[in-house]
Amino acid sequence: MAEGNGEVTTKNDVSEKEDNDEKIDDKIEEGKTVEKSKDYPKLIRCGLEESVALKLDEIYRSGKLAHVDLDDRALDALKEFPVEGAINVLTQFLESNLEHVSNKSAYLCGVMKTYRQKSRGGGTGPGSAGNTTPASTPAKGPDEDKIKAILERTGYTLDVTTGQRKYGGPPPNWEGPPPGPGCEVFCGKIPKDMYEDELILLFEKSGKIWDLRLMMDPMTGTNRGYAFITYTNKEEAFQATKD
């Protein structure tokens, strides 16, 4: 037994640590038959179950996500997920269109939150995120070619989260504060399968858009039926209510 600085370390403590290190090294060695990225050992060492680490590493190798994109909150949430649920979440993430997602770590956390909610509502056991939810038909998405053309024409950005799709805000070369009260318009009764590739063209007719926020339902993947459009001045916003 050794003692110093108020800490006591026993042979059992040292042995247990060595055993844990050996187990981690064994997991890394066992996975060598599967192609992996250089970040795979980091996933094992941070405590992810091997099959979950392999699935996340598959996403790394796809180019959709880099290890530096994930913060501790996302990794900790994955560790707390049952294995089956974590793999299902990562599969859904891999199949998602992440082209306009700026914060992929937050987006992954949003996917996990939605999965938990779906599992509680439709799983075979109460509150279990490990239950497999029934496969649903993917919601119709926007026309990516039309969106690309709009963004190239206007120079605006599109930022996608699990809760909204935000176009602009601010526009390119905008100087000064955001538009004040009276510049925002609420639009309801939007068809569930309509996106900004159609909405922008409609609302541009009334004036210069500062930003457009289409609210999304992460449970269904469709929009919630309403959006908020902010114009650069009150006159344009008023015109939009008439058009």
Radius of gyration: 24 Å
User: What is the number of strand segments?
Assistant: 7
Average pLDDT number: 85
The count of domains is 2
The percentage of residues in β strands lies in 15-25%
- What's the total helix number? 9
How are the strands of the biggest sheet laid out side by side? 3-4-6-7-5
- Percent helix: 40-55%
GO molecular function, one term: RNA binding
Protein name: RRM domain-containing protein
Pfam family, one: RRM_1
Question: Describe it for me?
Answer:
Pfam families: hnRNP_Q_AcD, RRM_1. GO terms for molecular function: RNA binding. It comes from Rhodnius prolixus. InterPro entries: hnRNP_Q_AcD, Nucleotide-bd_a/b_plait_sf, RBD_domain_sf, RRM_dom. With about 240 residues, the chain is of the alpha+beta class. It contains nine helices and seven strands, in the order ββαααααααβββαββα. Helix 3 (about 50-60) packs parallel to helix 5 (about 85-95) and helix 5 crosses helix 6.
Question: Which keywords apply here?
Answer:
two-stranded antiparallel sheet, single chain, alpha+beta, RNA binding, disordered N terminus, 243 residues, RBD_domain_sf, 9 helices, elongated, five-stranded antiparallel beta sheet, 2 domains, 44% helix, hnRNP_Q_AcD, Alpha-Beta Plaits
